[in-house]
Amino acid sequence: MSTTKGLEGVVATESSISSIIDDQLTYVGYKIDDLAENSSFEEVVYLLWNKRLPKVEELEEFTKELVSNMEIPNELIEHFKSYDLKTVHPMAALRTAVSLLGLFDEEADVMTEDANYKKAIRLQAKISTIVTAFARIRDGKEPISPRSDFSYAANFLYMLTGKEPKALEVEAMNKAFILHADHELNASTFTSRVCVATLSDVYSGITAAIGALKGPLHGGANERVMKMLTEIGEVENAIPYVKDKMANKEKIMGMGHRVYRTGDPRAKHLKKMSKELTELTGQPKWYEMSVKIEDYIKAEKGLPANVDFYSASVYHSLGIEHDLFTPIFAISRFSGWLAHMLEQYANNRLIRPRAEYVGPRNQVFVPIEER
Ligand SMILES: CC(=O)SCCNC(=O)CCNC(=O)[C@H](O)C(C)(C)COP(=O)(O)OP(=O)(O)OC[C@H]1O[C@@H](n2cnc3c(N)ncnc32)[C@H](O)[C@@H]1OP(=O)(O)O
Ligand SMILES: O=C([O-])CC(=O)C(=O)O
């Protein structure tokens, strides 16, 4: 048997949801650039789950379905109010809340294609409400109900802040959601597929995936990018800071990628938004120091900025608390996880690889009192 550390380069499944070929990302064959510039998050979710773009009436119907399923059970709100939210990381709270949500879904274990699709709608609808309810309750405020006349992105910002969001803010959020929606067989998506390949339910798959996304080598990097920028403080400190980290063999968050070599095609969109939003908010330094770091790491290590790098200064400019950055990633990636779980159910086989045993052999058991 031969092993590949971290399964690098191993092709573990077939999929027709998203592809990364020659550093280009597509969703169901549509270029990410076209979708980011011209589409809505709702349309992209439809695309990922149905593997085709919707017609006008289909998108209207789908959008209505999403909004009408956004309310969350009161028990979940009471659950958030029952402990000190300031002492927990939002991703941990989210992991538990989504698992709890499954207990209120009578169809959680109904495995028909139709039931799973309906659960996907319910989960995608409610995740944005869960994250915003958590954030508001943590700040001592009451959760806000979604508005049926708002898009998914607008509702997220509205439920978070209680204010009607500006067009530019909605555009940025919509684009960020589209860009994070799916990414082939990344660690959290693989986790979700492994989970439901045992024919477990989608709530289990999503809960497992949230756990995988939380880590700093994956979705957890975006929050840490902002921590790094905050520590750097001013543009002139950026290079000395990064040099120091590199000298200590520490990784620079938001840089590098397992698959991309020349660059992450999502990063340029977030970079553009970061420039616009940081200028608009009178804080161009976050963008400027990010560019310095990106250029330095590219020149020194040949590593590209990934999707987490510029999303940090985008979300910061939208006034979002830093520890909500990864939950925002999760809101978007729910759509990809759900698409992959639906695909897995449709053509399932248990995922069970092998491990090469490298431990001791032929040991003689010694009773405990003689050791
Ligand atoms: C949405 C996402 O999940 S995108 C990824 C988000 N994660 C991050 O931004 C965390 C920072 N980046 C990383 O840790 C890595 O680049 C990963 C985990 C994303 C992918 O890396 P892998 O393919 O596993 O590469 P690995 O970690 O083995 O690194 C290979 C080499 O590049 C270096 N390297 C990789 N990323 C970085 C980085 N961000 N900063 C500095 N050096 C890095 C490693 O130190 C290693 O160098 P060496 O060969 O001299 O020892
Ligand atoms: O694909 C990966 O390994 C990580 C990533 O960029 C993502 O999940 O968006």
TrEMBL record:
- GO (cellular component) term, any one: cytosol
Is Transferase one of the keywords?
A: yes
Listed Pfam families: Citrate_synt
Q: What are the entry keywords?
A: Acyltransferase, Transferase, Tricarboxylic acid cycle
CDD domains annotated for this entry?
Answer: BSuCS-II_like
Entries under InterPro entries matching the protein: 2-MeCitrate/Citrate_synth_II, Citrate_synth-like_lrg_a-sub, Citrate_synth-like_sm_a-sub, Citrate_synthase, Citrate_synthase_bac-typ, Citrate_synthase_sf
Q: Which family does it belong to?
A: Belongs to the citrate synthase family.
Entry protein name: Citrate synthase
Quick one: which pathway? Answer: Carbohydrate metabolism; tricarboxylic acid cycle; isocitrate from oxaloacetate: step 1/2
Q: Which positions are catalytic residues?
A: 257, 308
An example of a GO molecular function for this protein is:
citrate synthase activity
The Gene Ontology biological process terms listed for this entry are: carbohydrate metabolic process; tricarboxylic acid cycle
* Reaction equation(s) it catalyzes: oxaloacetate + acetyl-CoA + H2O = citrate + CoA + H(+)
Q: Which organism is it from?
A: Aquibacillus salsiterrae
